[in-house]
Design goal:
Blueprint (H helix, E strand, L loop, with lengths): L9 H22 L4 H13 L4 H8 L3 H14 L2 E5 L7 E5 L1 H21 L5 H20 L12
Antiparallel strand pairs: 1-2
Length: about 160
């Protein structure tokens, strides 16, 4: 048992690891004049194709107003476009433009290289195990019914 509660508290450790692993990527994004929320939107659209703002908010783990503002900035930069749904013309979807897809791919490559460098000491098997354990944890938590007092933010 650690001497201090937070030293063994998983949500704190995960957040701290995220912060430390993301520092270099955040610097790279700043050099490209891309905000973290914009990077998440571009990457989710790269991986999942056209999505509604609500689906983007869910997949990026960002509040809907943040996603709406990120999409508006990306649209002004020419990286995303909005289109109407086929069955319901009122429904709007966001997708990457060719320029947005190219930028997303470049940034994903950089993020993967930074992650590889940061986690090189773990080794491939240990890293794969860590990813698998986290995916299982997330899957179990997502299946759990939410209680009235639960919040979407981490501790």
């Amino acid at each position: 048992m650690p001497d201090h509660f937070l030293d063994g508290y998983l949500p704190y450790l995960l957040h701290r690891a995220d912060s430390l692993l993301s520092v270099d990527l955040h610097h790279e994004l700043a050099e490209e004049h891309v905000q973290v929320s914009e990077w998440r939107v571009l990457t989710v659209l790269r991986d999942r194709g056209p999505l509604s703002i609500g689906a983007l908010a869910e997949r990026t783990m960002l509040p809907q107003p943040t996603v709406t503002h990120a999409v508006a900035r990306l649209e002004r930069k020419g990286y995303v476009a909005r289109s109407s749904g086929r069955s319901d013309r009122r429904q709007r979807f966001v997708s990457n433009t060719e320029e947005g897809a190219a930028l997303a791919s470049t940034l994903v490559e950089r993020a993967a290289a930074l992650e590889d460098a940061a986690l090189a000491e773990l080794g491939a098997d240990e890293r794969a195990r860590l990813v698998r354990v986290l995916q299982e944890l997330i899957g179990g938590l997502e299946e759990r019914p939410t209680s009235p007092g639960s919040h979407e933010t981490s501790s």
